[in-house]
Amino acid sequence: MLTDNFGRKFYYLRLSITDVCNFSCTYCLPDGYQCDQPRDFLSLPEIRRIANGFSQLGTEKIRITGGEPSLRKDLPEIIAACKETQGIKRVAITTNAFKLPEHLPSWLDAGIDAINISIDSLDPRQFHSITGHNKLPHILKGIDMALAHGQTTVKVNTVLMREYNAYDMQTFLDWLKDTPVTLRFIELMQTGENQEFFDAQHVQGSRIKQNLILDGWLPAIRDKSAGPAQEFYHPDYAGRIGLIMPYSNDFCSTCNRLRVSSLGKLHLCLFTEEGLSLKDYLQQDDVEPLKQHIINMMGNKKATHFLHEKLTGATTNLAMLGG
Ligand code: SAM
Ligand code: SF4
Question: What is the pLDDT of residues 86-141, one digit of tens each?
């Protein structure tokens, strides 16, 4: 089992398969995807070896992310490769879902267990102004299809922003009355490129948590390979609410996840100074050297990120690593 110097165990791998994105979310890629050099993204055989190596070290869940992972034509093969790996119990994806109705059948066939969809506003015009794309009705149609099918869990990620959505909790709550999804409010994180935006828009999740508890929302129990959200349920609501609060004091103490970038670099934290290349170890099917290399690097994992000191490491935006 992969363990660090602070006794934390790592059951969960977030695997980025591209850093390209077609959206231009205000907080992430406000000027759209900028390509400054040719990219050599992980190939399917390399992804198989990563899944294999990590699963032999105790990883039970893989989340496929990006950039926008659905821009890769071989995404169904990637999902299937992760799903077929012995020891991997859950394969999830984080996506902007711009073509969810079209993509869903092939993802389900490949064995996807969970789909997290980014929706920062339930107002189509606001959604358009945040992402640059008028896609909200199409995405909501895809969510209905996924829920009707029933094979996957569906979660929605909403980045909290003072002037875009934080003032309008009621619209989200009304939606959750009858929609059986978990809506996770994510505190906006500062990155290398969004400092001004962060200063203007950051809202603390703790205030929302207080209001939820006052309104009768109850904390749910956390699974060992669960993501970073504190989840809440309410007897009158079909949906749940999650809060991801990276600025809260004990956020890093429950860290159970590692990240591999689409360029094949291990990131011990979302905000490390550099990624540690695995590429040389991904060129052969024998994963023993890869496993040993990963174990050797675990000692470098720090107790916390340094976001409170406004230190964002090498992370210029979250599209480069998958959030
Ligand atoms: N393109 C996909 C999507 O948007 O779901 C996957 C990649 S995106 C980087 C993963 C998640 O990170 C999304 O839910 C997105 O809203 C979130 N995210 C991006 N930048 C962020 C930031 N600065 N602070 C908090 N969350 C952020
Ligand atoms: Fe693209 Fe996701 Fe970043 Fe939006 S949050 S720009 S969809 S990578």
Answer: 999 999 999 999 999 999 999 999 999 999 999 999 999 999 999 999 999 999 99
Per the structure, the complete domain to which residue 39 belongs is given by 12-320
Q: How many residues does the chain have?
A: 323
The pLDDT tens digits for 201-214 are: 999 999 899 999 99
What pTM, to 2 d.p., does this model score?
0.96
**Distance from the alpha carbon of residue 288 to the mean position of ligand 1, in angstroms:** 33
Q: What residues contact 317, with CB distance under 8 A and at least 6 apart?
A: 28, 29, 191, 192, 193, 194
Give me the CATH number covering residue 277: 3.20.20.70
Does the C-beta of 118 come closer than 6 Å to ligand 1? yes
Query: CA–CA separation, 292 vs 192, rounded Å?
Result: 32
Decide whether any atom of ligand 2 lies within 6 Å of the 189 Cβ: no
**Distance of alpha carbon 84 from the chain centroid:** 21
Q: Is 19 in the pocket of ligand 1 (CB under 6 A)?
A: no
Whether residue 6 lies inside any domain: the answer is no
